[in-house]
Amino acid sequence: MQALERALEIHARELLEFAATKQFTGENIVFLTRVRAWKERWNRAALAKTPIPLETKNKLYEAGKEIFDRNISLHTSQFPINLESKTYRKLEDIFGSSFSSSPSSIITPFTELWAATGQRESRAGFEDITRAEDNTKPGPFVETLGTQYGFDGQVFDSAERSIKYIVFTNTWARFLESSSRKSSA
Q1: I want to staple 130 with a disulfide (CB 3.0 to 4.6 A). Which of 19, 86, 110, 162 is the partner?
Q2: By the 8 A CB rule, do 31 and 71 touch?
Q3: Does residue 96 register a pLDDT over 70?
Q4: Mind giving me the DSSP string for 5-66?
Q5: How confident is the model over 161-172, as a mean pLDDT?
Q6: CA dist 44 → 50, 52, 60, 77 (Å)
Q7: Element (H, E) at 161
Q8: Is 182 helix (H, G, I), strand (E, B) or coil?
């Protein structure tokens, strides 16, 4: 599991490309990468000032809402991750449409990752999953949200554990096998 963690930190692009083109599970890698970045933002904010100022919580909520809309929501994500219903409902209670307006188009999780890396190679079938536009405008953080619905730095923990297990038991082993075949060729 530590090797997977390290790969997500250092070699996320290669793992994402493999997952998206060979396993058709790229949404899992995108989700794990985005949650990792979100948690880093939360931890920096928590270290800088306790309690976290409301303005900062607003920004963290908006970033969390974006993760939900792009990677989790069955209504807005083109490639939603596969979560247990209990975990999904908890996140939907926090980030779902009752707290902001619904986006007017389906959202793809891959576009932002390519923009961030500055690289986008055309691969058959792979390019198609990166085309949808994001018209989402997240709503403001509600001050009671944290205590009432569980919005905190661990809001994605259950979903992250679930997806990480799926990646570790399925995609990761095949990725390692594919990488070893490439290096021996």
Answers
A1: 110
A2: yes
A3: yes
A4: HHHHHH-HHHHHHHIIIIIS-HHHHHHHHHHHHHHHHHHHHHHHSSSPPHHHHHHHHHHHHH
A5: 96
A6: 11, 10, 11, 28
A7: helix 157-166
A8: helix
The one-letter amino acid at 83: L
Contact 50, 71 (CB under 8 A): no
pTM value > 0.85:
no
CA distance 36 to 156: 10
Query: CA 169, CA 28: separation in Å to the nearest integer?
Result: 13
DSSP summary character for residue 68 = I
User: 20 Cβ partners below 8 Å, 6+ apart?
Assistant: 26, 29, 110, 126, 129
Residue 77's φ and ψ, nearest 5 degrees, are -90, 130
First to last CA, the chain: 26
